[in-house]
């Protein structure tokens, strides 16, 4: 069995591969245009919610995703994150398998780690560290790769 057959044998793995590819495409678009289009994020968010709740998720997963949603939306309201980035991150978080409730915490860790990396690079280059708006959709890619590598059905 080759690697594509192995991935397709596990629907969750296949979904994660599709989400990784989509996140790469959206990240490239975001880096180029500084926009994350609603035409991608809103259907993705609706699909993520439907997929999540169709799997009869445990209360811990629902609670973790709701808390993550509140934190991300608060970040958007305070200007820490762009609206398109938050919609993309929320959609991807709700797509994650509910049997893996630590996903929300992994996501926050990746978000904090990539933010720290971005700030450190700016500081080392002598650039302004705060108050600079930069595309952030790319942060979804390391998150999805970690989940893909960690997922064991």
Question: Would you write up a description of this structure?
Answer:
With 153 residues, this protein is mainly α. It has one domain. The chain contains seven helices and no strands. Helix 2 (11-33) runs antiparallel to helix 7 (140-150), helix 4 (59-77) packs antiparallel against helix 5 and helix 4 runs parallel beside helix 6. The longest helix is centred in the N-terminal third of the chain and has 23 residues, at 11-33.
Keywords:
153 residues; mainly alpha; 7 helices; globular
Radius of gyration: 16 Å
Q: How many domain modules?
A: 1
Mean pLDDT equals: 80
Structural class: mainly alpha
Number of helices: 7
- Total number of beta strands: 0
Characterize the overall form.
globular
Low-confidence stretches: none
Share of helix among residues? Answer: over 70%
Order of helices and strands: HHHHHHH
% residues in beta strands: under 5%
Task: Work out the oligomeric state of the chains in this entry.
Answer: single chain
Distance between the termini: 18 Å
Tell me the major beta sheet: none
């Amino acid at each position: 069995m080759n690697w594509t057959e192995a991935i397709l044998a596990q629907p969750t793995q296949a979904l994660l591969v599709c989400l990784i590819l989509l996140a790469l495409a959206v990240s490239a678009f975001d880096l180029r245009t500084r926009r994350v289009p609603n035409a991608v994020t809103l259907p993705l968010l609706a699909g993520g919610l439907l997929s999540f709740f169709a799997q009869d998720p445990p209360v811990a997963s629902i609670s973790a995703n709701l808390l993550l949603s509140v934190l991300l939306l608060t970040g958007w309201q305070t200007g820490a994150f762009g609206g398109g980035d938050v919609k993309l991150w929320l959609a991807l978080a709700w797509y994650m398998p509910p049997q893996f409730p630590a996903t929300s915490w992994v996501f926050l860790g990746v978000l904090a780690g990539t933010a720290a990396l971005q700030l450190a690079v700016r500081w080392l280059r002598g650039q302004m560290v705060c108050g600079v708006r930069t595309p952030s959709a790319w942060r979804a890619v390391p998150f999805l790769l970690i989940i893909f590598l960690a997922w064991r059905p």
